Please model this.
Amino acid sequence: MSEHLTPPTRKPTVPHFSSGPCAKRPGWSADKLQNACTGRSHRSADGKAKLTEVIDRSKNILGIPADYRLGIVPASDTGAVEMAMWSLLGSRPLDILAWESFGQEWVKDVTDELKLADVRLLKAPYGSLPSLEEVDFNHDVVFLWNGTTSGVRVPNADWIKSDRQGLTICDATSAVFAMDMPWDKLDVVTYSWQKVLGGEAQHGVIVLSPRAVERLESYQPPRPLPKLFRMTQKGKLIEGIFKGDTINTPSMLCVEDALDGLKWAESIGGLPGLIGRSEANLQAIAKWVEQSNWADFLSEKVETRSCTSICLKIVDSWFATLSLEQQAECSKKMAKMLEKQQVAYDIAPYRSAPPGLRIWGGATVETDDIEALLPWLDWAYASVKAELAAVV
Model:
């Protein structure tokens, strides 16, 4: 039982390691929202100025080209991805990549809801990537940059052709602000505020290249589009969406929170600072994994390890003797034990992912807190193993 195992003495100062919504930035408090434009119309001069500032600061930090559009849209990253797929897909064959649960959700949308006929699925199990060399860029391509539930990211953009005929539509919600996005290789990028900058939920962001805008203005999809998905009117892009005129009413508290996160990002050196913090968190865990006799990365290759959604699997020979149900129970027990100790909140694996742990390593997480957490993982595993071994 865990009572006879001595727990570590040092705890993380901030035990928030959830993969979404994610930890608030260091030093955050609700006082930072006191200048929010609450009780006012988001279409007022002051409200629109706040929304425009989010757009401008985001584009500047991320290095988004001047001729790309960035808009704030409803329903978080999910809404942004579906907005893109429902509005853009159908004029060309489609290659869709899936190697974890959210990628599978987009497959369901394409096959079960949009019912596209000419679709090629490139699939891989948790821990791996599909064969990127097989992607046909004469087709449209839908893929994730980083698998939030698998901890597997694409290593680079070398596999994406510059002279592609189709559009590349990239769900990058757990990558943007923590990884370098090659904008010239990407036609649609979606993300939400609640990931790397630790913003509040329900607001998505969609980034469109000139090629994506051209498709929107030249292609009428053979399906009805809900108002929340419409980006054109009379065959022309609704430019206001990308200048602060949001499709629906945003939370001005969330807008203020997004501004706070963006200003913090600027204060630590912008995108290089954000990437550096996230990569340092990954390296701290990698150093620990090298010494561990029970834990390893779920990602099979070093170059595909995520620096945000860091997913671990259990490789102890004892663990391998358990049934899948017992392995899942072991993971849950560890997560609950760490939460009870107020050491780590919300680090159980995603419900459809393999048993293990998932630790958010985005830029708002301090490396000192990651380092403080790691001995507790050893304690939790040893404790659960001792408990289960006595009854299994």
